Amino acid sequence: MKPTDAELEILHVLWASGPSTVRQVHEQLSQHREIGYTTALKLMQIMYEKGLLSRDDSSKTHTYTAAVSEEDTQRGLVSRFVETAFRGSASRLVMQVLGQHKASREELDEIKRLLNQLDHDND
Amino acid sequence: MKPTDAELEILHVLWASGPSTVRQVHEQLSQHREIGYTTALKLMQIMYEKGLLSRDDSSKTHTYTAAVSEEDTQRGLVSRFVETAFRGSASRLVMQVLGQHKASREELDEIKRLLNQLDHDND
DNA sequence: TTCTATCTACGAATGATTTCGTAGTAAACA
DNA sequence: TGTTTACTACGAAATCATTCGTAGATAGAA
Q1: A59-96 residues labelled b (16+ CB within 10 A) or e (exposed)
Q2: CA pair distance B89, B93, nearest whole angstrom
Q3: Alpha-carbon gap: A58 to the closest alpha carbon of chain B (Å)
Q4: Which chain regions cross the lipid bilayer (chains A, B) (predicted)?
Q5: What does pLDDT average to over chain A?
Q6: Which of A13, A23, B62, B89 is least surrounded, with the fewest CB atoms within 10 Å of its CB?
Q7: ipTM entry
Q8: What is the pLDDT of residues A14-26, one digit of tens each?
Q9: Which of A4, A17, A78 to mutate to test the interface with B (most CBs of B within 10 A)?
Q10: Which of B12, B85, B111 has its CB closest to that of A94?
């Protein structure tokens, strides 16, 4: 339910690439950092046991798929993060993020659209 | 530099209440969850060694103070979180947060003000 | 002064995460 | 067929975070 950092790395690969073998995932991860093949394997096995991944083991080389959606996972992570880091104040988190990361014009516009929509929901 | 969850709880108490003794911090924490006195003590000692807290031990009962600011700490936490959970996309984090937490009218207005200011900075 | 309460220091157990080596098995190849 | 290669399973070490018990010291009360 609450993936660890290493598990998130693997989920990101699977979310981006779709169903993959351990070797494929390992190759992706290797481009970012040092990690042994059996480390990736073990992580994915644990994630399978936890229900974070599903797998097709009909052939010798198993194929893994993310069993949790990116949306749902990020929702959970955000909830937890707002609680622990911002004591539940989501708006302070938003302002902190907007203040420290330079968003593009398009991103700012998209956020504004969302804000206006929330405004109308509030009315 | 990167406080853990338990350490963050203690920092929040000290940020809110200012310099405090272990007993005072422990009393605050106890209202939220079960935690032994020596657990709080040990945590604060470790945080002192790490440089997260400073302390006055001129009397038998030490007084601890947060040695890192809330702003700086949250900035660091956000950076890390955007990386691990959102692969660096701050705007997607913002939209996720705004979509899932109902902010008050005042908060939304404040966020809009910030957005407009960012707009002008961009021009 | 003696006893009690409070505080710090220290050590250690527990559990979770991350890591990788080794062994065994199946497939592909020569 | 026999050998090499690739893959999974398993176990276990290393690290870190969290937890608390116990011991020793200090201060205040009786």
Answers
A1: eeebbbebebebeebbeebbbebbebbbeebbbbbbbb
A2: 7
A3: 32
A4: none
A5: 92
A6: A23
A7: 0.89
A8: 999 999 999 999 9
A9: A78
A10: B111
What tokens does A112 get? 């504004």
Distance of CA B25 to the CA centre of its chain: 15
Q: Which residues of A touch B101 (CB under 8 A)?
A: 82, 90-91
Reference B111, options A123, A108, A86; nearest CA is: A108
Phi-psi region of A57 (alpha: psi -120 to 50; beta: other; left: phi over 0): alpha
For chain B, the average pLDDT equals 92
Find which of A8, A75, A98, A109 to mutate to test the B interface (most B CBs within 10 Å of its CB).
Answer: A98
CB A25 within 8 A of CB A40: yes
Q: Which amino acid is at A37?
A: Y
Q: Are A100 and B88 in contact (CB under 8 A)?
A: no
Q: How far is the CA of B97 from the C1' of D11 (A)?
A: 42
Instruction: Please indicate whether, in this complex, the C-beta atoms of A100 and B122 are within 8 angstroms of each other.
Output: no
Q: Which residue of B has its CA nearest to A77?
A: B85
